[in-house]
Amino acid sequence: MAFDPRALSALDFPRVRDALAERCATSLGTERARVLIPSDDAGRIARELDEVEDALFGVSLSLGGIQDIRDLHARAQEGRVLSGQELLNAAYSLDGAMTVKRAIGANSRGPLREVALGLGDHTELVRRVLGALDREGGVRDDASAHLRDLRKRIEPLRSRIRDRLANTLEQWSDVLQEHLVTIRRDRYVLPVQASRVGQVQGIIVDASATGQTYFVEPAAVTQLNNELTRLILDEEAEVRRILTELSGLLAQDADVPMTLSTIGELDLIASKARLARDWHLNRPEPSPAGAYDLREARHPLIERPVPNDIRLGDTQLLLITGPNMGGKTATLKTLGLAVLMHQCGLYVSAASAKLPVVQDVLVDIGDEQSIEASLSTFASHLKHLRYVLRHASPDTLVLVDELGSGTDPNEGAALSQAIIETLLSQDARGIVTSHLSPLKLFALETPGLKNASMGFDLETLTPTYVLQVGQPGRSYALAIAQRMGLPDGVLGRAEALLGPDAGIMERMLEGLERERADLAAQLETTAQARQSAEAELGRVRQERETLEGRRGEMLAEAAQKAESLYADAIERVRTLRARAQEDGARPRVMQELRELRTAAQKIRPAPPVREERGDPIRVGSKVDVPAYNASGQVLELRGDDLVVQLGVMKVGVKRRDVRVQPEVKVPVARGSFVGRTATTFQPELQLRGLGVEEAVEELRTAILEAAALKEKQLRVVHGKGQGVLRRLLREYLKNDRKVESFHDAEPNQGGHGVTIVNLRA
User: Where is composition skewed (Basic and acidic residues) in this entry (predicted)?
Assistant: First the structure.
């Protein structure tokens, strides 16, 4: 679908075209820039934006010197013979195109390589033309053997003729007008006075404009001049033959039109990149959902524009009200121009932009109105609005400036409301500007329609040009009139005519605007405080992470030291075992084993802290909650969610975010041998009530001591229960090399609750 040309004109798009054309390096690119129109093909738009990005950050395209040789190619195809200069221009242009192709191949990120496929290979044509012509377009002597031979003969013959005539100058000096040899009609002659021409034997070749001088070819050089003329004619024929041949080569090169078209396309792409750089434009992103989101959008053709955020999504239509000269129309055009530029494959004037692809931009803008065909301003508005209403849809952007103007305010407001309702029912999106107060109230009550205004400084009575969404605008007519210098008497009379009640809504809006400004200041202060708090929180968290990391290092270091000490203790046990073989050493060895065992238990590294993710959590379980750096009791279970009492506070946490505290058990005679003393050994080990890790550690130590003392058997009391401890202890016994065998005790001595361990000798 073609975009309405009136919309392009109303939105100042021709000025963007002009800016592009000024940045083109070739007439081929300029021609494309002048006729650039938006596309509604999303794939093409994305591809063109990729090409501009490649030109910005990948390839620097240098297209200067490449000329539009389409006319030369067409004339050559018609069979015409081109001049040497024309052929030279064609060769230089095609050679430049091939240079561009090589540069793109070496530097492109990809998109421009696809475009460069349209650049043909003109190597043979360029070689032949540059080999036959000099820099001025003349045919070189070595363009052909015949031409070289002719020119070798012509120059000596010219010298002979000049020398022969020079020798006769003295002879004819009294009849010559000037004492020199000259050329007329490609023949060497002497300038003879008209009154004495009969005294010279020869042929009159030409005469001066005044008739005072005749140019005479003396008979002595006639034959030589004839020979020179013949050679010159042969030379001209050979030159024409060469130019005809080169023109034919150009005519036969079928890739020339595509190459020239591609050069124009590349030049336009390079121009788009230069425009993006010069105007500080950014690449827009697609918005498939049909929403518009421009951040810090600027009108690119306004000097020092004020950036504004423009968003349309849930809000279908934005109703901007407020004073003239406040920036309403500029804001409307900013959005329209961004859409047109995006769909022409151009970057847009915004810090960031997300834009949909529309099929048309429908406008009714004051700048576009005229009174042609005897139409009034209001009738002209209606003509454009009729077109807008007929074509408005979710796939179009609607931009209406000063809706309802040019007629009675009451009727204008009613008609404007009906038009807006129709646009909303058609799911159209866009911006509408107006002065009509009833529309402000209508916007407050209508879904999909939102009030907006342009900021106005109440102190200086000047517009700020800042778009304020959600805030209806005021006209400030009297304030602006005062600023523009209208007489005080006129202003006073106007205020009197308005009466005390006429400005109630205006005063309410003024109050709202002041409150909004105060609220904005408070929000800014709050935002700054929040940023400071977040920064402080981040610093504290960083310090905590650093301390946690250091704590881990210290624990690891301590564990390593404990392991070393424990290894030393094991080595001492081996030594004591050897000493136990000595007579009388047993009591002393037992005492040292007791002391060593106590010390070993103290230095044995504790098992690493684990999150007890697999342990059952029940109501009443004691848990640690690291996120709150506190401990508490489980009150409720809700699947993966827990409710935990932390002091006076109840918190909800995930099961994975807590650690179960080990249950406090009644102290048992930990690892003690029943009835043993510092000098006696009773081989019964009580493990009932211990955890698995504690029980295994006690068993391992007891076996170590018994083996050191050459004991043959241990009685391990673990209890029956569910048999878990019995099974895990026996798993350990299977892998201890000091154990010969093990079995249950006799039924009358404990049965399954006791394991008898036989030790190796």
Answer: 536-551
